[in-house]
Every structure is written in C-alpha cells, then in structure tokens.
Amino acid sequence: MLFDRRLKWKTRLFAAIVVASNALGNFFLARGMRHLSTSPRSPLAFIQAIFTPWVALGITLLIVWLLSRMALLSWADLSYVLPVTSLGYVANAAMGHYFLDERVTLQRWAGTLLIVAGTVLVGRSVSNAGEPA
Amino acid sequence: MSAWILLAIIVGSTVTADLLQSFEMKRHGEIRFRTGGMGRLAATLARKKFLILAILCMAVSFFAFMKLVETTDLSFAVPASAASLVLETILARIVLRERVDSRRWWGACLVAFGVALVAR
After folding, report:
1. Which residues in chain A are closer than 8 Å to B104, comparing Cβ atoms?
2. How many inter-chain contacts (A to B, CB under 8 Å) are there?
3. CA–CA separation, A33 vs A40, rounded Å?
4. Helix or strand run (H / E) with residue B13
5. pTM of the full predicted structure?
6. Cβ contacts of residue A111 below 8 Å, gap of 6+?
7. B78–A92 CB contact, under 8 Å
8. ipTM surpassing 0.85
C-alpha cells in the first residue's frame, strides 16, 4: 500500500517535471534560434548555435526533460507516458502565444482542449505504474 | 528544406528513439535514486546499445527540430511533431507488447485529433 502510494506520487512528480522542462526548453530554444545573427546552414553553424546563451539554456532544460522522461519510462508504460506528458503541447502553444507573439487561432485552442480531454481519459486508465484507475 | 520534410524526419526518428528507449529501460528495470549511486547508474546506462541508438535518433530529431522552430511557429512545430503519438501507441502495443486498454486508446485518439487541429 505504502509502496503503491510512493510510486503514484513519484510518477506524478516526474510527469510534472517532464511537462515543465519540455515547454520551457522549447521556448528558450525557439527564442534563441530566432535571435541568431545568421541562419545556420552547415553542421558547424548548428554546433556554434548550441553555445549561444538562449539556445544553451533551452538545451539544458531539454536535457532535464530527457533524463526525467527516461526515468519515468523505466517504471511506467510508454502508452501511459506519451499521452500524459502531451500536456506539454498545450504549454508550448501557450508559450508561443503569450511570449513569442505567435497568432494562435481558435482552431488551435480547440485542438488544445481536445488534447487535455484525451489526457484526462488516459489518466483514468489503469497503468502498471500504480496510477489509479 | 521544407517544414514538412523536417517534420517527417522528426516524426520518424522520434518514433524509433522512443521504442528503443522504452525497450532498453524496461529491460534495465525501475531506477531507484540513491546518493552516490548516480555515477554507477550513468555508467551502466552508457553501455546499453539500444539506448545509445535511441540517443542518436533523438539527436537527428533535435537538429531537425532546431531548424523547424527557427522558421515556423512554436505553436505549430511542437504539436505537429506529435503526429508520432498514434503511431507510437500502436507500436507500443505491437512491438513492446504493452497492454493498452480501451480508455487509453480513446485518449490517445483524442490527443491525436487535438494535435491535428492545432497543427492545421
């Protein structure tokens, strides 16, 4: 019982870290790539871009995303992890709209709500991670 | 390079990476965090060949994604790259032999439909 509860909270904590680090990482990466002095066209130019401050911050957060996701996948099903962490898509759309001045149409927001609905449905299913049915 | 070609590269390499990663991490077993054990854990994981292959696929996906977010909206690039979700759920059932119940199927379908709307 105690083990189940520990695993449940561990799963939720890691899912939250995965979502937050993905949204922030992508935001800083996009911001950095759009502020480069020249658009990278060669492998060397891409490697140079990696070491610019905003891109480097984005990549650091995406490394946190990768490691926390790998840890989560070590005990939870891929078919559970994928839809639950898809909340990150909503966060990314919001980041684009509010912080990158992107025009997000009503249709895109409707799609976002569908993603949330799908995520809730998946969250109510049984997983081998101790998550509740 | 067009956004759709970049998107195809991202989706293909992401699906491959996720399947390899999940397979190898399941084979390794649940990770338990202990002080002093992280170095040993990293060394163990660095020797897993499917994990190394997964990371290579992720690198391909990442460089294509860097180029995509430079030229298109983040609110398009990120949801559009989730086109891999349905394919991955199907392959998780077939290749990884995970039990996927009906709620999870419907949830994945809703997520995929939502992603399609967001990406249009």
Report:
1. 79-80, 83, 121-122, 125
2. 174
3. 9
4. helix B3-28
5. 0.72
6. B79, B113, B114, B115, B116, B117, B118, B119, B120
7. yes
8. no
A67-94 core/surface letters (b: 16 or more CB in 10 A; e: else) = ebbbbbbbbbbbbbbbbbbbbbbbbbbb
**Residue B21 DSSP symbol:** H
List pLDDT tens digits, range A38-67: 877 787 888 888 899 999 999 999 999 989
Residue A38 structure tokens: 């020249």
pLDDT in tens, chain B (120 residues): 688 899 889 989 999 998 888 888 777 676 666 666 667 667 776 777 888 999 899 889 988 988 898 888 888 888 777 767 777 778 888 887 888 888 878 888 887 888 788 767
Per CB-CB distance under 8 Å, the chain A contacts of B118 are 89, 93, 107-108, 111-112, 115
How far is the C-alpha of A4 from the C-alpha of A27, rounded, in Å?
A: 35
